[in-house]
Specification:
By secondary structure, the chain is of the alpha+beta class. It has three helices and five strands. It has one domain: IHF-like DNA-binding proteins (HU Protein, Chain A, Irregular). The strands form two sheets. A three-stranded antiparallel beta sheet has the order 1-2-5. Strands 3-4 form a two-stranded antiparallel sheet. α1 crosses α2. The mean pLDDT is about 95.
């Protein structure tokens, strides 16, 4: 399912217009992204959680030249599947 399919599903389920459904989906993603950017955890009970891990600086290698390169610290988002979602997917 992509974003357009999600918008269509919201539209069909709620009976609202497509632009209104698109606004709801956009708002959801915008707020979720903003929370993660602040370092907050986003948890949707029974489905999943998203959180940010921070990685410190480390020394890597340039694969073409083999020279050492310092990799800057970074923060990356992670997804953790909830127990209910695991069970639903496993049952098929």
């Amino acid at each position: 399912m992509n974003k357009l399919e999600l918008i269509d599903a919201v539209k069909k389920e709620t009976g609202i217009s497509k632009p209104a459904a698109a606004k709801i989906v956009e708002l959801f993603f915008k707020e979720m992204t903003a929370a993660l950017a602040k370092g907050d955890r986003v948890e949707i009970r029974g489905l999943c959680s998203f959180f940010v891990k921070q990685y410190g600086s480390y020394t890597g290698r340039n694969p073409k030249t083999g020279e050492k390169v310092t990799i800057a610290p970074k923060m990356l988002p992670f997804f953790k599947c909830g127990k209910e979602l695991k069970e639903r997917v496993d049952k098929g």
